[in-house]
Amino acid sequence: MSRYDVVIVGAGPAGIFTALELKDKAPQLDVLLVDEGLTIDRRNCPARKTGRCVHCQPCNIMSGWSGAGAFSDGKLSLSEEVGGNIVDYMSAEEAREFIRYADSQYTRFGAPDKVHGLNDKKVEEIDYECSRHNIHLVKCPVRHMGTEYSFETLRNMYRYLIEQPGFTFRELTRAQSLHIENGRVTGVVLCTKGQEPESVEAGYVVAAPGRGGADWLNHVAHDNGIDTKNNEVDIGVRVEVPNSVMDHLTAHLYEAKMVYYSDTFENKVRTFCMNPGGIVSEEHYQGGIAVVNGHSYAEEERRTANTNFAMLVSSRFTEPFNRPIEYGRYIAQLGNMLTGGGIMVQRLGDLLQGRRTDASRLSRSTTVPTLKTAVPGDLSFVLPHRHLTSLIEAMKAFDKVAPGLYSKNTLLYGVEVKFYSSKVAVGEQFETAVRGLYAIGDGAGITRGLMQASVTGVVVARDIAEKSGV
């Protein structure tokens, strides 16, 4: 039976930063990091070249070293207000210090130096204009790595770690179950593709499975008496417009995070994941669900003529309903059903006139879609009335600070769903009620982005190093 001091489940940013910090602060510890996907140099998504998903198992977009972050837009939000709930576990001042430290690690491994949103005068002018129209601007500096630099930075972290004594990475390996004795974790059962399950002893286990492994973590929590709490679910569309509509905002903020409470239902509607000169993309979750996303490159020559961003309606369900993730999956499946399995696109003008966008109408759009495989359709057959009404009202409001957004040729892709995992009950150092078992990152429902997920890894590593007598 193999034995390690620490086993980390999941090689997304939370898991990677746990490993980095352990090797920096406690280099004598033997650390095993496992992921059900491939190592970063072997990850390749055919859809990036062909435009069509071939349903790799496991998905090369969602699984493998660095998780979904490898092919993401690589936005590092440098504010404790954005990307998760770490201020529920530490003070805002502590959170800011951890973010500064994690950001320095990203730049250490190759993230670009430039930070957007630091021009206080211009940001204040945009904030003032938003306030005139009941829009809240979330002021958050952003370090944009871009899809290409995000991949390189995370690969540099991999290359650094595999050279460290006492560090091991296993690809195509998932955690099946945990060994727990007298309220303390003592090991984990691992399944490597093509091999028999193997029991591994461990003094500490860090569960950082990402959203793709949230169901597994929920089962672990349920089986071991660890409390969980439902998170909200965000459902909406990805908007695509010419750069000229958004450039006056993105030139200074890069990502304009705006929040509006809709007129009819007072639902919270927010913009998210803004990609100037970007590309709308498709991603797949387990169970064959296709949802829309977007990304952009840092290099100027790879910019497109369009900006895309998500517009999401946030919903938090109350008892007795306790299946928000399943609800979001149902909406996504409905959209996939109407398109034959892909992403739907509709012109805003057609939606407002109550008619389906067809190929002919789409061809007349002055906004040329960047997701060529999107199927023209009618989002009113997919999105609930409450969500659709709230999105339209928010878009009309946002048009006042981004004239041209509420245009007949604005493209709406559906659906975009953010599955926020159930929040696992943890203490200040992210340790669960099972001693030695930590739950961190997006899969634990604690974070929602690269930076805060990375911070949770740093916190856990330092706690383990201290308990190990370093």
N-to-C span? 26 Å
Shape: globular
The poorly predicted ranges are none
Proportion of residues in extended strands: 25-35%
Query: Order of strands in the sheet with the most strands?
Result: 4-12-13-16-11-19-17-18
Number of strands: 21
Number of helices: 12
User: What gyration radius follows from the Cα positions, in whole Å?
Assistant: 22 Å
Portion of residues in helices? Answer: 25-40%
Please summarize the sheet with the most strands.
8 strands, mixed
Average predicted local confidence, pLDDT: 92
Specify the structural class.
alpha+beta
What does this molecule look like?
This protein starts with a strand and ends with a helix. The mean pLDDT is 92. With 470 residues, the protein is α+β, with helices and mostly antiparallel strands. The strands form five sheets. Strands 4-12-13-16-11-19-17-18 form an eight-stranded mixed β-sheet. Strands 1, 2, 6, 7, 8, 9 and 21 form a seven-stranded mixed β-sheet that branches. Strands 3-5 form a two-stranded antiparallel ribbon. It is 30% helix and 26% strand. The longest helix is centred in the C-terminal third of the chain and has 18 residues, at 450-467. Helix 1 runs parallel beside helix 12 and helix 3 packs across helix 12 (450-467).
